[in-house]
Amino acid sequence: MALINRFNSSPGTFGLFLKSLLRVPVESCSGFPNTFPTRLASRCLVPSLQFARFATFNTKEEYMENRFAPLRELSTSELHHTLVTRFETSGPPGLKELNLFLEKCNTSEDAALALQMVTKYRTQRMRQRIMAAFPESVSLQLVAACQRGGRLELALDALVRSRELGLDVGEATLKEVKALDCSLEADQVDQVTESYNRMEVTRSFPGEAAVAGVVLALMKGGEGDRAKEFISSLKQNGHSSLPSVDALIF
Q: Which CA distances in Å does 38 have to 7, 17, 116, 176?
């Protein structure tokens, strides 16, 4: 209690810092026993921070919805500018902001920005030594953004570079791309296959998702036979287990 009373009478620099951190007067903790540091942390510091954060909301979900409400009102270009500014001033925004941006992408230009934004996030995560891949929801949102913008070749290019971009490409993503009712021009197919060839130069095997991206590009370009030949050549070179790729054709 003597320590508490001393804090109340002359808090000093740490006391002022603590007051600002808690957003409540330090005096509100003065009823605690002599186990000041432990009780302050467990009964005053954490609850007070949480109270300040969620004071006007019944649940954390309500708080998060209120936090994102202003972002939802922004146009795609405005939200893009906002996220880029955050990258430059306060570090990378969260994955919820990324998914929200991808949801808003609707045009051809937006699709290009969507892929750029995913790349930007990945670069920043690597700098922070976050090696884990994005959740598959990001892959699905990126595919949907490219489809709405009529840029399926960008989505397939992202599949080919999935390891580089940190994308989790699972069965749900591959089924989504295969089900899309659209086709690719010859130059768009070439864009995807060239991206695969570049990846193959730097990796002994770019991965099954990359192979799936090429196969889907060939199929969407009306080159089903070439897709089968591509898979056969891989298997002849020792890549015998490609179950998700086989499911796309057979």
A: 16, 18, 47, 52
Q: How far apart are CA 231 and CA 247, in angstroms?
A: 12
CA atoms within 13 A of residue 222's CA, in its CB half-sphere? 6
| Model pLDDT for residues 7-17, shown as the tens digit of each residue | 444 545 544 54
d(CA 79, CA 98): 10
Phi and psi angles of residue 97, each rounded to the nearest 5 degrees, phi first: -65, -40
**Closest to 137 measured CA to CA, from 176, 106, 105, 111:** 176
How many residues does this entry show for the chain?
250
Do the beta carbons of residue 213 and residue 182 sit within 8 Å? Answer: no
At residue 204, the pLDDT reads 61
Which structure tokens are listed for 52? Answer: 């300040």
CA distance linking residue 22 with residue 142, whole number of Å: 40
Summarised one tens digit per residue, pLDDT across range 192-234 is 999 999 888 776 677 889 999 999 999 999 998 999 899 888 8
Cα–Cα distances in Å, from 52 out to 27, 29, 44, 171, 214? 17, 16, 12, 42, 51
Give the count of beta carbons closer than 10 Å to the beta carbon of residue 76. Answer: 19
Please tell me the pTM assigned to this model: 0.72
Q: What residue ranges of the chain have pLDDT lower than 50? A: 1-9, 11, 14-15, 17-54
Positions of E strands within 62-207: none
User: How much is the pLDDT for 43?
Assistant: 42
Cα(146)–Cα(108) distance, integer angstroms: 7
For the chain, how far is it from start to end, CA to CA, in angstroms? 76
pLDDT of residue 19: 47
